[in-house]
Amino acid sequence: MSRLRLLAMLLGLFGLGACGAVNPTMPLAPNVDLQRYSGRWYVIANIPYFAERGKVGSYFDISVEGDRFRDVYWGRSDFASEPSSFTMTGYVVPDTGNAYWRESPLWPIYLSYLIVYVDQEYRYALVGYPGHGYGWVLSRTAEMDEATYQGLLQRLAQAGYDISQFRRVPQRQEDIGKPGFQ
């Protein structure tokens, strides 16, 4: 999919209302250390939407410099294919404990990136979006045990999410077709 086509779909999905300031509609992580948050995050589960639906082995690479960041998504249509990517850049909203980001696929469009939770060791994170229509369960490793996954889903439920909408993202060939996976 071309970048221009992806951008057009993003604009249609999030609408021009995403251009203005948006207040978070859920509690955020109290204080995110941006340097510790930087790096690779595997997508363990998400609420599937067009850009990530059906992708396998997906992850985000996040780099932060000051209050600016770069968020690169990588995903494959199958495990035999090369990964494709799209990049968002943005800034951290001041006075939010570094948990509220505004990211853009193309100026002047900005979308909200809400860090709902990150554990003390920065192994797991939950990312949301105003209105609860999009959400992600992230991990520093490609695999997550079921007890940890269920505990993170409960945190999302407490933040107002309908956790039945989340689907696990296959990170290994043997995950494909398992219950609860895309």
From TrEMBL:
Q: Which CDD domains match?
A: lipocalin_Blc-like
The protein's predominant localisation is membrane
In its keyword annotation, does this UniProt entry include Membrane? yes
Q: Which domain of life is it from?
A: Bacteria
Q: Residue limits of the Lipocalin/cytosolic fatty-acid binding domain?
A: 32-171
Cell location: Cell outer membrane
- Ribosomal protein among keywords: no
- Which keywords has UniProt assigned to this entry? Cell outer membrane, Lipid-binding, Lipoprotein, Membrane, Signal
Q: Tell me, what does this protein do in biology?
A: Involved in the storage or transport of lipids necessary for membrane maintenance under stressful conditions. Displays a binding preference for lysophospholipids.
Q: Which family does it belong to?
A: Belongs to the calycin superfamily. Lipocalin family.
The record's note on quaternary structure and interaction partners says: Homodimer.
Q: What is this protein called?
A: Outer membrane lipoprotein Blc
Q: Which organism is it from?
A: Teichococcus aerophilus
